[in-house]
Write a structure and sequence with these properties.
Distance between the termini: 7 Å
Strand order of the largest sheet: 1-2
Order of helices and strands: EHHHHHHHHHE
Length: about 270
Amino acid sequence: MTTTTTSPLRMLNKVPEVTVYFWIIKILCTTVGESFADYVNETLGFGLGRTTLVFSVALIAVLLVQFRLRAYVPSVYWLAVVLISVVGTLLTDNLTDGVGVPLAVSTAVFAAVLAAVFALWYARERTLSIHSIVTTPREAYYWVTVLVTFALGTAVGDWTLELTGWSAGASVLLPLALIAAVLAAWRLGVGPVLCFWLAYILTRPLGANIGDFLASARDEGGAGLGTLGTSVVFLGTILAVVVYLSVTHKDRTERALRAERELVDVEVPDPVS
């Protein structure tokens, strides 16, 4: 005879702790979103439509797995972020290159959509903190927000380059300076939730500009790695960091690890003699 005490509603926070590792992988993912999308779309000749379809289907498949999990799993979570970075980039590219929507308009539209998502999220859940992603509705709001931030970050970054005409290398400095300003604001007491989401948006143009710099030819002021070389290097680095985090649990607190062990314990059938 066996008994179980499994609670089908029990879920731990589905997002990692915001540590230096979080921001490193986030920036790596944004770079891959730019370079890999360009490689598949342009170098392989898939075109915007087919590239968007392929990565959207892959993203949906990974998110289905992510939503079925009841705790944070690094490999699944960060694979979802990589794919959502590509899809977010392609959303902006489709509007700009496919439909001809000006980047200023795309920026305004995605900013309005993001504000609407935040407003709905807060109205329903009374929090925008990523430390409380413990229900399916909150996780849904979270991933929609992440997708829109990638699209908005792409539009903002491309629009900035369009306005300034800066080289790929110099273009890294603006988002980097803005992120430093957000960090300073946080240190001075500005709300951590606001600072987190501002930094999250700004890491998108930072990563994209780093990708452009690495992929651009040397005679254009870049590093000459190309979109494939940049994608391979960054995907390999992401994989290495995710494996490291999976083994060391550096992106989880002791409290979170104890909760995960307790969740596993209550789901294991206990033999009763």
